[in-house]
Specification:
Elements lengths: L3 E6 L3 E6 L2 E6 L2 H13 L7 E5 L2 E5 L4 E2 L14 H15 L11 H17 L5 H11 L9 E3 L8 E4 L2 E5 L6 E3 L1 H9 L6 H8 L5 H21 L10 H7 L2
Antiparallel strand pairs: 1-2, 2-3, 3-5, 4-5, 6-8, 7-10, 8-9
Helix pairs in contact: 2-6, 3-4, 3-7, 4-7, 5-7, 7-8
């Protein structure tokens, strides 16, 4: 008999696994609409959509295993350098695809969000002021005009599945939109900076390493409050707070 497994659950979204089917229940139906639309457009492997209801998206499991997990050392991952390079190649294929209609946050909106989050982190003694200040200085470099590409928008390492050296599927497309290519590359390698060279071997050229480093700081600063408020621990070893400390 199949069991129901809670994959992730918070106030915005719950994902359940029943056998080889995943049910994504979202408080915002528009997020599910965006996810389903993105999966229908992208030229990279995605989970097959089984059926769709206003607040539920049912998708099939993709073969293979996740490239890794945030907080786990890269050495603990079974993924080979070639698998990371294949992930880079898949990201390049995505970024070269025709643009979607949906727009992600631009530099001005991100700058305003960064102001608010840094103020909150310091005012509530969540992080030391010098840690926030240093990473904010680094993050500023990401807040420049960019040529938009088709971005995944939440390309965490656990969202890329591989079998051997090949990418078998990329999941969780609810944040897909026009955005900065460097953001996807930074998100995939967040906490796994030692794998960036492998990823870029597959991705190719036209990459500014300083901008990727800026996105590591920016994403981490923007994410800490959300993670805390939704029951996750950004202070776990290898996660967002450690990423910020590494910049010191």
């Amino acid at each position: 008999m199949n069991k129901v497994e809670v994959v992730v659950a918070h106030s915005e979204r719950t994902t359940l696994r029943v056998g080889d089917m995943f049910l994504k229940v979202d408080a915002d139906p528009e997020r599910l609409d965006a996810e389903a639309e993105a999966m229908s457009l992208v030229p990279v492997p995605t989970p097959p959509i089984l059926w769709r209801k206003p607040s539920v998206l049912a998708i099939a499991a993709v073969p293979g295993t996740a490239l890794g997990r945030l907080g786990e050392p890269s050495a603990a991952s079974a993924a080979s350098p070639a698998a990371w390079a294949s992930a880079g190649e898949a990201i390049r294929t995505l970024h070269d695809a025709p643009l979607p209609t949906r727009h992600g946050r631009g530099p001005d909106e991100l700058a305003a969000d960064l102001d608010a989050e840094c103020a909150w982190l310091v005012a509530n003694d969540v992080l030391p002021a010098d840690l926030v200040t240093r990473n904010r200085e680094i993050a500023e470099l990401a807040l420049r005009p960019w040529t938009p590409v088709f971005t995944h928008g939440d390309l965490q390492i656990a969202h890329v599945f591989v079998d051997g050296d090949q990418v078998t599927g990329i999941i969780d497309w609810s944040e897909a939109a026009r955005g900065d290519a460097h953001f996807d590359l930074a998100t995939l390698t967040l906490g796994h900076e030692d794998r960036l060279t492998d990823v870029l071997a597959g991705y190719g050229t036209d990459v500014d390493l300083d901008v990727i480093r800026a996105w590591w700081s920016l994403r981490s600063l923007l994410g800490v409050r959300w993670l805390v408020e939704h029951g996750f621990d950004p202070t776990a070893p290898g996660c967002e707070v450690d990423v910020l400390r590494a910049r010191m």
